[in-house]
Amino acid sequence: MGGRDATMVLLDENGIRCDGRKVDEPRRIMIKAGGLKNADGSAYIEFGDNKILVGVFGPRDVHPKHMSNTDTGILRVRYHMEPFSVGERKNPAPSRREIEISKVIKEALEPAVMLDKFPRTAVDVFIEVLQADGGTRCAALTAASVALADAGIPMRDMVAAIAAGKVADTVILDVNNEEDQAGQADMPIGYMPNLEKITLLQLDGVLTPDEYKKCVQVGVDGCKIVYDLQKKALQEKYFGDGGD
Ligand code: CDP
Which residue, judged by its Cα, is nearest atom 13 of ligand 1? Predict the structure, then answer.
């Protein structure tokens, strides 16, 4: 963040971004529900050049037992990047960044999942980032919601996620890797459209109060686009159509 590559044109005179998109245009998003036969639920997402696979297991027994909660189920999330998922090989050991992202995705999913229906059990969410290109936490959170629904876990709503941000003093939707590196702000947002509740909001960079409000609005509107694609993916798997 903060103009590391001053030569890159992030927004040209016609308001077109470095990858040809308009300011309010998301990348191409493709979501598939299911696909892993050994998981209770799964999903695959392509979000621009991000490629992410999610497997959900549970509700199942917790080992060691003392980790379980007699009043409620627990959600465990592991976000993992393949060493080949980024340009410079990533060390396979869990990084601080992966631990942080696992935690924020878990906290973003918890308000959606009815864990109180499964006391003493755990629901495990495994996220494998096969290819990363900026915005993996949003893409992973989006796919994890679909995988949880695919596993039949009762949910209040699905969490849809996308980042808003700022490049060349302009608020944009869906920040890619170049914009994340060289832009002015990146704000990942997770949102439950039916309940109208934000469950993830992070901000890397500096925004004025007006830009902050605009980013939240642009991000929430973007989540609604993502939400429709999540529902379509589930409809395609269970009813054989996209619901059109
Ligand atoms: O992926 P997300 O935007 O949620 O998280 P980030 O920490 O802001 O990372 C932004 C991007 O940096 C990732 O999506 C990857 O494309 C890239 N990255 C990388 O090239 N090497 C790493 N070890 C970690 C991230």
Answer: 134
Q: How many A from CA of 156 to the centre of ligand 1? A: 30
Q: Which of 106, 153, 165, 161 is nearest to 136 (CA)?
A: 161
Ligand 1 centroid distance, CA of 119 (Å): 35
Taking every pair of Cα atoms in the chain, the longest distance, rounded to a whole number of angstroms, is 60
Angle at 166 between CA 214 and CA 174, to 5 degrees: 85
Residue closest by Cα to atom 2 of ligand 1? 135
Per-residue pLDDT of the chain (244 residues; tens, 9 = 90+): 554 455 579 999 999 999 999 999 999 999 999 999 999 999 999 999 999 999 999 999 998 899 999 999 999 999 999 999 999 999 999 999 999 999 999 999 999 999 999 999 999 999 999 999 999 999 999 999 999 999 999 999 999 999 999 999 999 999 999 999 999 999 999 999 999 999 999 999 999 999 999 999 999 999 999 999 999 999 999 999 765 5
The atom of ligand 1 lying closest to the CA of 101 is: 4
Ligand 1: centre distance to CA 134 (Å): 5
Domains of the chain: residue spans and CATH: 6-238 (3.30.230.70)
Q: Name the 3-class secondary structure at 136.
A: helix
Q: pTM, whole model, 2 decimals?
A: 0.96
